[in-house]
Amino acid sequence: MNYRYNKGDTVYIRCKHETYDFATDAWSLADPDSGYPKITEKDSAGTVKVDATSMTKIAVGKFEHKYQLASDALPGVWPCFIEISSGGYKDKEYFSFEVI
């Protein structure tokens, strides 16, 4: 867990998607399947606050999501995950942030 937010703050999450090319032995930014990546966020009590919402594309392979915490947001660790689909193969990346 790397990030802490105060109640009322805007949570700002960025991610990137890369693919590997065996022919060139290199990674490069690429867009995932349509509608991905999707983010899900839960508060510290386990209530879903953001449910599989598509993230906003900012460039090829780069995405962001902003979420305004309520002034009475529950303090504690908020678990989240980003789901990606590329060529029909799905994966999830789990992370969390803390509300203080």
What do these coordinates show?
There is one protein chain. With 100 residues, the chain is mainly β. It contains no helices and ten strands. It is elongated and about 50 Å long.
Give the topology:
Blueprint: E1 4-5, E2 10-16, E3 18-21, E4 26-29, E5 38-42, E6 48-54, E7 56-59, E8 62-68, E9 76-86, E10 89-99
Parallel strand pairs: 1-10
Antiparallel strand pairs: 2-8, 3-4, 5-6, 5-9, 7-8, 9-10
Task: Please give a handful of descriptors for the protein shown.
mainly beta; Immunoglobulin-like; five-stranded mixed β-sheet; three-stranded antiparallel β-sheet; 10 strands; 62% strand
Can I get a quick summary?
This protein is an all-beta fold and 100 residues long. Helix content is 0%, strand content 62%.
Low-confidence spans:
none
Largest sheet: 5 strands, mixed
Continuous helix count: 0
Tally of strands: 10
Q: Between the first and last Cα atoms, what is the distance in angstroms?
A: 13 Å
CATH topology: Immunoglobulin-like
What is the percent of helical residues? under 10%
Mean pLDDT: 95
Backbone CA Rg: 15 Å
Described by the principal axes of the CA atoms, the overall outline is elongated
Overall domain count: 1
* CATH level 1 name: Mainly Beta
CATH superfamily: Macroglobulin (MG2) domain
Order of helices and strands: EEEEEEEEEE
- Please give the CATH architecture: Sandwich
Major sheet strand order: 1-10-9-5-6
What is the strand content? over 45%
Helical/strand content category: mainly beta
